[in-house]
Task: inverse folding
């Protein structure tokens, strides 16, 4: 079994220590480093050998000095292969979308149980884009236009849609897209549709390709804007 290497960037000492203890209960996930600031994480990872780099980073969004979003931008430029999951107490729409634009592929709340965090790490390492249910609802509300933050240089916009609007999504792909819109994980979709998580991952990649997007958030936006679900 391949072990997923995880690093955590979190200024709360108690939370870092809790992670150090809790991650020992999972054989397929190893916490290889914790850092109190984004600067400390970047400096340490730049000195690390490729085999010592994490596969996934849990990133607090509110950090002293460099913010979690700024750290995510810097880390994705240095290490594009590392997946980053924002880990925060906030459900702020602008922060969520700025994090997604910065390169974060997942978004969890700090009060999520450790089992859910580890499941999300596993999903992220397999190409998924996990989100807490409450975060998914916030994203859905934003994309439906119920509460749109003021536009700025960092805001996320939907990709241009090619005309005619014909995405050629299969019935199965539409089922999975519906699940993405409602914040379901790859694991829950696999169980619901009686298929493997690997098959779900393959279908999602095909959906992204057909919708001309590269993230869950943009796929959801296209789906809602074009009435696909």
Result:
């Amino acid at each position: 079994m391949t072990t997923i290497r995880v690093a955590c960037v979190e200024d709360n000492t108690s939370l870092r220590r809790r992670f150090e203890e809790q991650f020992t209960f999972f054989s397929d996930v190893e916490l290889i480093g914790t850092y109190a600031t984004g600067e400390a994480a970047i400096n340490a990872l730049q000195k690390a050998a490729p085999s010592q780099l994490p596969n996934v980073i849990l990133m607090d969004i509110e950090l002293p000095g460099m913010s979690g979003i700024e750290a995510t931008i810097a880390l994705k430029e240095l290490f594009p292969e590392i997946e980053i999951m924002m880990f925060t107490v906030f459900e702020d729409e602008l922060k969520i979308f700025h994090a997604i634009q910065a390169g974060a592929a997942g978004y969890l709340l700090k009060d999520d149980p450790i089992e859910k965090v580890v499941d999300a790490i596993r999903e992220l390492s397999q190409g998924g884009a996990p989100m807490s249910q409450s975060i998914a609802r916030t994203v859905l509300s934003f994309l439906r236009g119920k509460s749109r933050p003021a536009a700025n240089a960092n805001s996320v916009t939907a990709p241009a849609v090619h005309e005619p609007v014909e995405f050629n999504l299969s019935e199965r792909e539409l089922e999975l897209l519906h699940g993405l819109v409602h914040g379901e994980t790859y694991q829950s979709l696999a169980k619901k549709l009686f298929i493997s998580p690997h098959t779900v991952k393959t279908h999602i990649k095909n959906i992204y390709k057909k919708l001309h997007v590269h993230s869950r958030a943009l796929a959801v936006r296209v789906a809602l804007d074009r009435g696909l679900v």
